[in-house]
Write a structure and sequence with these properties.
The complex is a heterodimer of chains A (245) and B (478).
Chain A lengths: L27 E3 L2 E5 L3 E7 L2 E3 L2 E4 L5 E4 L3 E8 H21 L7 H17 L6 E9 L2 E7 L5 E3 L2 E3 L2 H5 L1 H7 L6 H18 L7 E7 L3 E3 L26
Antiparallel strand pairs in A: 1-4, 1-7, 2-3, 2-11, 3-12, 4-5, 6-7, 7-8, 8-9, 9-10, 12-13
Chain B lengths: L19 H12 L3 E5 L3 E7 L13 E5 L2 E7 L1 H22 L5 H13 L6 E2 L14 E3 L22 E2 L2 E2 L10 E3 L10 H9 L12 E6 L2 E6 L13 E10 L2 E11 L5 E9 L7 E6 L15 E2 L14 E9 L2 E7 L5 E3 L2 E4 L3 H11 L8 H16 L9 E7 L2 E5 L2 H11 L7 H4 L10 H9 L4 H11 L5
Antiparallel strand pairs in B: 1-2, 1-20, 2-21, 3-4, 4-17, 5-16, 6-9, 7-8, 10-11, 12-13, 13-14, 14-15, 17-18, 18-19, 21-22
Helix pairs in contact in B: 5-6, 5-9, 5-10, 9-10
Classes of the chains: A alpha+beta (245), B alpha+beta (478).
Chain lengths: 245, 478
């Protein structure tokens, strides 16, 4: 039973044998997650790849999970640390439910809690190597926020992690607007995911779109995006440059 | 309630199933000056009577702001109230820090009630690198008698109640009286050798030869217990594979005797037993702490430092809190008013009054409470002031003798300043207010506040009087 709660300090961090227990590099990682606010709530997209270094090793990793009644968490980065975070949140939600008093933790509270956890771990030089996207709806209020592995956190109308920050957010800045319909939101997300698929080495063509509204969470079945490779430049690529590939 | 043989300590049940100390604690609440609270859908008002010891002194603070959305009014031992409000503030601020959201009132109230219910708390923890050994069972107080341990040294009853101490042997003089027995069990899951444990618990100067005795000290949460004692030989003196110390020392200025025993009960499990005897009062409270620690964090044994936080009998933890709390709060589910009892119970109210002469206020509130839910803020404050006036039994209501606080939607908890309150009093006052001194506030009160006058008339009466007041008020029903 591992009760190494992140809010308690880790005494091993000062001993030499502890070094092997700190997170030094991530091993199995997920790539970008994108989240946007839309008319009824939040839409989030992430592919299902878990890379082992440069190998696209695992192709069915669910990187988005519902948290409690009101929130949805998506993570990029080290998959094992994501599972650890889910374990903490599980306990958090359990205790919240045990109060059984009509109050429940909303997305803002979960986001704050995750910020504290991530920042605390960073201070001990043993970070949870993830960038998280936390979205949800409670009492009609939509909430979308992000936390990085060093505890940087903020809320916005659209957020992304990893490569998504560089490739997806410019698209979202241009094309996102208030009160997107569900279909428009999905189209927008798919546009971003397609760019990522073409340009991000660690992306796999199997993604899920998750939506959270006042009613609850729905995570779609995995599906693939259509890609186009029939560019004329790809036919006879070595024409005019013998010997090149 | 009359004194009886079951009321000396809080851990004694009476044959009728009552805990008299808890009931006496509730009496303390009734002795404090009045505090009242009432709520509507969107606002909660707390008001109290300011009592000053003398004309020269300022009055005691009875209403505390706990957070922007929670306030508390107390009646009873104000010192206890201050400590509890500090606890509440700290809970609120910690929750706010972690979740960036206000703590739901209902949860704070439950935490308060749990605190009141456990009159003794122990935890065994370690400060070395922040390791924690958690207590898995709660402490149950029960009765036990002090048992003579074989080979331990006889327990002598001396003529005087002096305690004396011999090397190689410990004798404690006991005045037979009640004993309290407290048990906590914690289990170590790691192998802890006795040497390591002793070194840690007792300090490096300790020498482990059986039969030896020497000076040692134990750090108990900011104070030191120093004494001499005897080590039980392994396997002997009824203790298998363990050791024990007994000693006499000073603990926070009071004379304490203690017996510490550690022995192995299983390959991986050790028992730590501490028997503490409070000798300074020459009353006998023997606390025996049986502890086996759950060792759940995977640290090597030498990292474990066991420090015991000891409960001294003079500490306030030993008795129930002698203060009743009216907690006013606002959260997602609306406005709330709770009353927390020293017994550890809590109730939600539309309106309530506690403290001395609160019955008069309660009577008034009982008649009016039907309208509170949809009251406006001003009406709610007005009702609060009237209720306060009831408890004054004819004394003139001035802003200097009462404190009024408001909490509402869009309005953080705050105390209304004196001018505002005086202004409200003047606006609400009826022409007939001058009569009270002469007439116990009866006839003079006729007017729109007719039912209030009837209440004041009956204010000095008991619960039965309340019923009569009801009848008296019927013709002037609002």
């Amino acid at each position: 039973m591992n009760l190494m709660d992140s809010s308690h300090s880790n005494p091993m961090s000062l001993c030499s044998q502890a070094d092997s227990q700190r997170t030094l590099y991530p091993y199995v990682t997920g790539t970008s997650v994108i989240g946007v606010k839309y008319k009824d709530g939040i839409l989030m997209a992430a592919d299902m790849g878990g890379s082992y270094g440069s190998t696209l090793r695992y192709k069915s990793v669910e990187r988005m999970k519902p948290i409690g009644k009101h929130s949805l968490l998506g993570a990029s980065g080290e998959i094992s640390d994501f599972q650890e975070i889910l374990h903490y949140l599980d306990e958090l939600i359990l205790y919240d439910n045990m109060w059984d008093d009509g109050n429940s933790l909303g997305p803002k509270e979960v986001h704050s809690y995750l910020t504290r956890v991530m920042y605390n771990r960073r201070n001990k030089f043993n970070p949870l190597w993830n960038s998280l996207v936390l979205g949800g709806v409670k009492n009609g209020q939509k909430y979308l926020g992000t936390v990085s592995m060093i505890g940087v956190h903020f809320e916005d109308n659209h957020v992304a992690t990893g490569f998504g920050n560089h490739l997806a957010r410019p698209i979202l800045r241009d094309e996102w607007h208030e009160d997107l319909s569900f279909e428009d939101g999905v189209k927008l997300l798919e546009k971003c995911m397609r760019v990522l698929l073409y340009r991000d080495r660690s992306a796999v063509n199997k993604l899920q779109i998750a939506k959270i509204t006042e009613e609850g969470v729905t995570i779609s079945q995995p599906y693939s995006l259509k890609t186009f490779w029939g560019f004329s430049a790809f036919q006879n690529p070595t024409v005019g440059a013998e010997g090149s590939w | 309630m009359f004194r009886n043989q079951y009321d000396t300590d809080v851990t004694t049940w009476s044959p009728a199933g009552r805990l008299f100390q808890v009931e006496y604690a509730m009496e303390a609440v009734k002795q404090g000056s009045a505090a009242i609270g009432l709520r509507s859908k969107t606002h909660v008002v707390l008001a109290c009577v300011n009592k000053a010891n003398s004309e020269l002194s300022s009055h005691q603070k009875k209403i505390f702001k706990v957070d922007d959305h929670i306030g508390v009014a107390i009646a009873g031992l104000t010192a206890d109230g201050r400590v509890l409000s500090r606890y509440m503030r700290s809970e609120c601020i910690n929750y706010s820090f972690t979740y960036e959201s206000p703590l739901p009132v209902g949860r704070l109230v439950v935490q308060l009630a749990d605190k009141a219910q456990s009159s003794i708390r122990h935890y065994l923890g370690s400060d070395l690198g922040g390791m924690w050994l958690k207590i898995i069972f709660g402490a149950q107080l029960c009765k036990a008698s002090l048992v003579k341990k074989k080979g331990f040294g006889s327990l002598k009853k001396g003529g005087s109640e002096q305690n004396w101490f011999l090397p190689k042997e410990v004798c404690v003089t006991l005045v037979p009286s009640r004993v309290g027995f407290c048990c906590l069990e914690m289990v170590w899951e790691r192998v802890l050798t006795s040497v390591q444990l002793i070194k840690r618990v007792y300090g490096p100067r300790y020498c482990l030869d059986s039969g030896s005795c020497g000076q040692f000290s134990i750090q108990l949460r900011n104070c030191y217990l120093v004494g001499t004692g005897i080590l039980w030989e392994r396997g002997k003196r009824g203790l298998k594979d363990g050791f024990s110390f007994t000693f006499l020392g000073l603990f926070r200025g009071s004379l304490i005797g203690a017996i510490l025993m550690v022995w192995r009960v299983h390959k991986f499990y050790w028992m730590l037993k501490i028997v503490l005897l409070d000798l300074s009062h020459l009353m006998l409270f023997v606390y025996s702490l049986c502890a086996c620690c759950p060792f759940m964090f995977g640290f090597p044994p030498h990292e474990v430092l066991v420090t015991a936080w000891w409960v001294c009998t003079q500490r306030s933890w030993k008795r129930p809190y002698g203060v009743g709390l009216l907690v006013a709060g606002l959260d997602e589910s609306g406005a709330h008013l709770y009353y927390n009892c020293p017994s550890g119970n809590y109730f939600e109210y539309q309106a309530f009054a506690i403290g001395s002469r609160s019955q008069a206020a309660k009577t008034y509130l009982e008649r009016r409470f039907g309208t509170f839910q949809n009251s406006s803020r001003e009406d709610l404050i007005k009702d609060a002031l009237f209720a306060i006036r009831e408890t004054l039994q004819g004394e003139k209501l001035k802003s200097s003798i009462c404190t009024v606080t408001v909490l509402g939607v869009g309005e953080p908890f705050h105390i209304l300043d004196q001018e505002t309150v005086q202004g409200l009093i003047n606006a609400f006052e009826m022409a007939g207010e001058e009569a009270p001194a002469a007439d116990q506030g009866a006839a003079g009160e006729e007017g729109a506040a007719g039912e209030v006058g009837a209440a004041a008339e009956e204010g000095g009466a008991t619960e039965e009087g309340g019923a009569a007041t009801e009848e008296g008020a019927a013709p002037m029903d609002i």
